[in-house]
Write a structure and sequence with these properties.
Length: about 600
């Protein structure tokens, strides 16, 4: 591997600790190659010709976020009007309805693509012209912390890169993972049920290419370090465009070795460590988040030893919340929360209740009994939801529920009722109160209903929660305080506004799970400086209920109030009443925004 003069100069100005760390990781990932030469290529790709690393890398700390941080998740074209660029509409919506309350925006893949609503990327360096351009992305990034997707595992089979692979052009001829139909691939864990390999005719004959997610999504081969260099250069370009939070999509499947499960392999974790190390030496404060929709213990491994992801999705939370509120019991939600470790220093949980994909069920495996998961599935199907499956050696199993979250809370196991809004807002209050950073899918913010027309038109279940909204009609709804969308958005914004002013809701503030009986879910949060305590308690049932005030450790001498209702709470006697699905944030400090 030839090292250029520019790469040698980069090495000369690189902190020794960074260069040594890169060399060590690269030597483990690519043991048959020169790690020093690889490190020089990595530095040139990630920092470019003009950039240079900080003299010292950031050390793990709790300073990358605060209680004010949150994210709204949206597609670039969720809002349309047939006249303006969708990114213009998203910018306008953000300024009108989000600014001053919400601080971050995750725009799902905004690149040219061929399928999977953006996750089959054809060009990582361009913005989809049907959405807008880089100037539109940078304008949003100038007002909100921008999260973007790095779809590292695969790209579109119709991309220029893959076309060059088919024609045998260097270096792309070694960019994609191939295998033989004769290989034993029975142990491979996958989120889909179609055949893993797809045959393609290439310049040198038939090749069978690895396709983890769909036959239009061809997997990269990271055993070739040039693939890594390419993605580090893409990350650099995205940072220069204003991206500050990088979502590593489907990263658990990154490294493949025939004869293994091809998920969570050692090299995958080491590549994440390498990206984290590089980000810690950028002048800009970059946060990495891993998207690993897997059982809880596996998901937690992506924190590493404070040296992999800064944030991980709290994937177990959505199915546990759904189970708790449909059944009126905190039994499994409580058990899970008690066993959850606090995020390590410099790390945080990313709390959400639903995403563009729906509610994942794999993270509930081992946390909720299968018969109770089946009951949740049956109930949500009764509310119009759909189910997607994944492939295992022992057969297909439920992978996720595809449903608009608001409709998932249309009722309980007993059927629909008149408490849908209250039940939904309760779910969001829990998301906001827990240790971590809260995130809200745009269709949850707006109480969007199941999009059956989208499913029929597009032919896949996930379309049920990806509706395109006419922006003029949406504005009319939001400007009328009596509409469902306006009521839900207003209620959520008020809770977020209150939350953002509470030091006890810092993403890393102390948390302790309360034991209040199955009808309630509660936990105690304490600010990092110990000046504020909040008892966050939710009634998970459709009945009025109460708890003895003595069941909470309300320290005498402090004036305790419910931050959400403004009501005072007595310390020593009496009952604390809860309406159906009411959440109280009982604090000794009335901090307002």
């Amino acid at each position: 591997m030839t090292v250029t003069g520019a790469e040698r100069r980069a090495r000369a100005t690189t902190p020794v600790r960074l260069h040594n760390g890169l060399s060590q990781l690269l030597g483990s990932i690519y043991p048959d190659q020169d790690p020093v030469a690889l490190a020089e290529r990595v530095l040139a790709a990630f920092f470019g010709k003009k950039g240079k690393p900080r003299r010292r890398g950031r050390v793990p700390a709790n300073s990358l976020w605060s209680e004010k941080d949150n994210y709204v998740i949206t597609y670039g074209n969720t809002l349309v009007d047939g006249e303006h660029k969708p990114l213009d509409l998203l910018h306008d919506f953000s300024e009108r309805y989000l600014a001053g309350v919400f601080t971050g925006i995750h725009i799902l893949p905004f690149f040219p693509f061929t399928s999977d609503d953006g996750f089959a990327v054809t060009d990582y360096r361009e913005v989809n012209s049907q959405l807008g351009d880089w100037a539109d992305i940078s304008r949003i990034a100038g007002r909100f912390r921008l999260m973007s997707d790095l779809v590292m595992n695969h790209c579109s089979s119709q991309s220029r890169m893959f076309s060059d692979f088919l024609q045998g052009h260097e270096p792309w001829d070694r960019f994609f993972k191939m295998a033989s139909p004769e290989d034993d691939l029975s142990a491979v864990v996958r989120p889909r049920t179609h055949p893993l390999l797809r045959a393609f005719e290439t310049e040198s004959g038939t090749k069978h290419v690895w396709c983890t997610f769909s036959h239009d999504q061809v997997d990269f081969d990271f055993s070739n370090p040039r693939v890594l260099f390419e993605f580090l250069d893409i990350i650099r370009e995205h940072i220069e465009r204003g991206v500050r939070t990088i979502r590593l999509d489907a990263v658990a499947f990154l490294w493949k070795e025939i004869g293994t499960s091809c998920i969570h392999l050692r090299q995958t974790h080491e590549i994440i460590r390498l990206i984290r190390l590089l980000c810690d030496y950028r002048e800009e404060p970059i946060v990495l988040i891993t998207e690993t929709n897997v059982p809880n213990v596996e998901n937690l491994s992506y924190f590493g030893n404070r040296n992999e992801a800064h944030m991980i999705y709290n994937f177990a939370l959505p199915p546990l919340l759904l189970h708790a509120l449909l059944g009126g019991t905190s039994k499994y939600l409580n058990a899970w929360q008690m066993a959850m470790p606090p995020a390590q220093l410099g790390c945080a949980y990313f709390n959400f209740s639903a995403s563009h994909d729906g509610v994942g069920l794999r993270p509930a495996e081992g946390l909720i009994p299968e018969n109770e998961i089946a009951r949740v599935i049956e109930t949500v199907q009764g509310f119009g939801g759909r189910v997607s499956y994944y492939s295992r050696p022992d057969g297909d199993r439920p992978y996720e529920l595809n449903v608009a979250l608001f409709d998932a809370f249309a009722g309980t196991h007993q059927g629909t009722d008149h408490l849908q809004v209250e039940r939904f807002l309760c779910s969001q209050a829990i998301v906001m109160g827990l240790e971590g950073i809260p995130a809200f899918y745009i269709h949850s913010l707006l109480a969007t209903r199941n999009d059956y027309d989208g499913v029929e038109k597009l032919g896949y279940n996930r379309a049920i929660n990806r509706k395109r909204l006419d922006y003029a009609m949406l504005r009319k709804e939001l400007d009328d305080p009596n509409t469902l969308s306006a009521r839900v958005l207003s209620g959520l914004k008020e809770m977020v506004r209150v939350r953002s002013a509470q030091p006890a809701f810092h993403p890393n503030a102390t948390q302790f799970t309360l034991q209040l009986g199955e009808a309630f879910f509660g936990f105690w949060r304490q600010s990092l400086d110990r000046s504020q305590s909040i008892f966050a308690v939710s009634n998970l049932t459709s009945q009025k209920r109460s708890i003895p005030s003595m069941s909470l450790n309300l320290i005498e001498g402090d004036a305790w109030h419910d931050l959400l209702s403004g009501e005072p709470v007595a310390q020593l006697s009496g009952e604390i009443a809860f309406a159906p699905y009411q959440t109280r944030w009982i604090s000794n400090r009335q901090t307002v925004s």
